[in-house]
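Subject: Sanity check before I submit

Could someone independently write out the structure tokens for this chain? I want to compare against mine line by line before I put it in a report. The sequence has 306 residues.
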Amino acid sequence: MAFSMAKKPVKYSVVDAFTDSAFKGNPAAVCFLEEDRDDLWMQALATEFNLSQTCYLTLLTGSDHLPTLTSTPRFNLRWFTPVAEVKLCGHATLAAAYTLFMSGLIDSDIIEFSTMSGILTAKKVADHVKAANGSHIKNGEAHDSFFIELNFPADPSSEFNSAEVLFISNALGGAPVVEIMRTVADNLIVVLPSGKSVADLLPQIDAIEKCPGFGVIVTGVAPPESGFDFISRYFCPKFGINEDPVCGSAHCGLAPYWCKKLGKCDVVAYQASPRGGTLNIHLDEKTQRVLLRGKAITVMEGTVLV
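---
Independent answer below. Compare away.
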């Protein structure tokens, strides 16, 4: 596959999302497009990065200029795994918002993204603990002393009654299955007896790829002393992601399940992948929206020349 050299170089950042430590959380490549690129190029670059997600930002203003300071900046946002475009991705949206907030290109605490899942917002929220003790001061502001809050659609689930429960259990290394739910977005939520059993399971990726649905979310209640409400892991080999380090969109399904189970609308989740990541979550039952709050850190910047 050949691409023309005539296009402008594309600046990119690799951002670790849902963490404030480098090489933790979930990495995403964030590419800012100043001119149109076709889908084949975007998919080829995502395959080249070989991260769980590569996303593409295009400014939407109706002109070549950034929005006025009184308007909310809006960008078109698309997400690609190494093998396919997807309709929703939490960690790459967080990474994209973080990149924009840190770039100096916008003067707003809210960004709107036009996506295949409708208009999504990202909001800068102060980390009062870090701001109070004055750590990481840079240019008069507590550097990285903010969370980014994503406003996403909830992904409700219903009970999954199937003769394939044993197959799914075996695909998870024989893990003891308490119940299985299927979300509207077609993920399976497989509930295990404890968070420890989630962390310890030995996934059989070839078998998980044959399970029904888009991907398999495995979850269990967290130990009381952990500071978390529930623990999860997410496997999506059908889309080139054997285990997603930290998946925001999976928590759009986990939030309604656990908030109902635990009887509260605010929960703290830990995704127990080898990299690990933390999400602070609020479920608005009335609007069926999930607010996902997390941090991010840039680990790499560069330019795509083709």
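---
OP: Matches mine. For the report I'm noting this point. The chain has seven helices and 20 strands.
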